[in-house]
Every structure is written in C-alpha cells, then in structure tokens.
Amino acid sequence: VQLVESGGGLVQARGSLRLSCAASGFTFDDYAMSWVRQAPGKGLEWVSTLTLRGETTWYADSVKGRFTISRDNAKNTLYLQMNSLKSEDTAGYYCFKAPGEWGQGTMVTVSS
C-alpha cells in the first residue's frame, strides 16, 4: 500500500488549497478513505471521510462548510478542497485507509 499526499503549502487566511492523495497497491474503490491532520505540537484530528464511491461524506465540525472531500476512482486519487482557510487549519494533512495505512503527509500553513 502506498499513499502519497501533495498540494500543501503556505497560504493566506481566507485562501484555498486542494490536496491530493495518490493511492496504489490496493483496490482503491474497495475502501472508504479519510483525511486526518496534526497541528504542530498537537494530536491527530480526524477531518473527513467518504464512502467507496463518494456518495456519503462526513466532516468534523471544525471544517464543515469549508472543506470538501472527493475521490476519482478511475485515477485512484483522493482529494480535499479547502476553502476559507484559517490559521487553526495549519497542520500536516494525511490521507488514511483503514485499518491503519497512512501517507507521509503534506504540510499546510495558513498565515493570518
């Protein structure tokens, strides 16, 4: 299993970023997928999950209405569109496949 995140960077508050996670080594559309994040010096925080074909999504209250999770099963890729970014969104973002597969993460830094 390999999960490779990309798309992070430095962005101003109220800006947008789109994260991607390229998956390989497993049948991507057999699994629900998630994004989690870890702010500097803090624990892991679940961000969002979507089902096998993306028909159902869930979001943490902290990102609801600002972030959108999606997937392209033909490309074996998971996405996270992040709008109206806040300084508290600064974190390493990781895609996650149950029961315990993670990527290396991509860092998002939001300047206020």
Q: What does this protein structure show overall?
A:
The chain has strands at residues 2-6, 9-12, 17-24, 33-38, 44-50, 57-59, 67-72, 77-82, 91-97, 101-102, 106-111. It is mainly beta and 112 residues long. The strands form two sheets. Strands 2, 4, 5, 6, 9, 10 and 11 form a seven-stranded mixed β-sheet that branches. A four-stranded antiparallel β-sheet has the order 1-3-8-7, with no helix packed on it. It is globular, with a radius of gyration of 13 Å.
Can you describe this structure in just a few lines?
With 112 residues, the protein is an all-beta fold. It has strands at residues 2-6, 9-12, 17-24, 33-38, 44-50, 57-59, 67-72, 77-82, 91-97, 101-102, 106-111. Strands 2, 4, 5, 6, 9, 10 and 11 form a 7-stranded mixed β-sheet that branches.
List the helices and strands and how they pair.
Elements (H helix, E strand, L loop, with lengths): L1 E5 L2 E4 L4 E8 L8 E6 L5 E7 L6 E3 L7 E6 L4 E6 L8 E7 L3 E2 L3 E6 L1
Parallel strand pairs: 2-11
Antiparallel strand pairs: 1-3, 3-8, 4-5, 4-9, 5-6, 7-8, 9-10, 9-11
